[in-house]
C-alpha cells in the first residue's frame, strides 16, 4: 500500500513540477457594418481569465465574457429581424454574458514569444434575444514581458455556432476568419 501511495505522489509531483497558474484577461473592441441602415455595430468585450498550464505545451483555462454594444445599431438590427431578415443575435443584443472552457496547446516557442491555439466550447447569452453555444479554435501569441507577466494577443477564429432563440435567430453557422470580438489583447500574471 505504501508503494502505491508513494508512486501516486511521485506521479502527481512530476505532473505539477512545471505547472503554472495564470490570471488575466482580454479586452476586445470591434466594429462592423450592418446589412442595412448605414450604422456600424460597435462592440466592447471584457473577459477575465484563469488557467493552469500542466506543462510547457498544454494547459486548461476558463474565461468569462461581458460585452456591450451600441444602441443605434442594435435597434436597426432588431428591426431587420422583425422584417423577416435573418440576423446574428450578437448584432442586436445590447449586453452579453458568456463563458469559454478551453485547452491551450503551445506549438512553437522562440525567445520571449510563444505561439498557441486555444480550442474549446463556449456559451453566450444575449439579453432579450436568445443564446449561442459554440465550438472552435483561436490562434494566439504570448510575449513574456517579465518572469511573471505576459502580454497575449489572439486573432482569427475557426468554429461552429448554434443559436438558441426565437425564429429570427435560430440556426447554426460555421465561422472562419477575422471579425469583431475575435481580435483581442490581454495581460496575464503567472504564479
Q: Topology of this protein?
A:
Blueprint: H1 2-16, E1 20-33, E2 40-53, E3 58-69, H2 71-82, E4 95-110, E5 113-126, E6 130-144, E7 149-155, E8 157-164, E9 171-177, E10 183-190
Antiparallel strand pairs: 1-2, 1-10, 2-3, 3-4, 4-5, 5-6, 6-7, 6-8, 7-10, 8-9
Q: How would you summarize what this structure contains?
A:
The protein is mainly β. It contains 2 helices and 10 strands.
Instruction: Please compute the radius of gyration using only Cα atoms.
Output: 20 Å
User: Beta-strand level of the residues, as a percent range?
Assistant: over 45%
Distance from N terminus to C terminus (CA atoms, Å) equals 34 Å
* Sheet of most strands: 8 strands, antiparallel, barrel
Order of helices and strands: HEEEHEEEEEEE
Shape: globular
Range of helix content:
10-25%
List the uncertain runs.
Answer: none
Mean of the pLDDT scores?
A: 77
The number of distinct helices, counting runs of at least 4 residues, comes to 2
Number of strands: 10
Structural class assignment: mainly beta
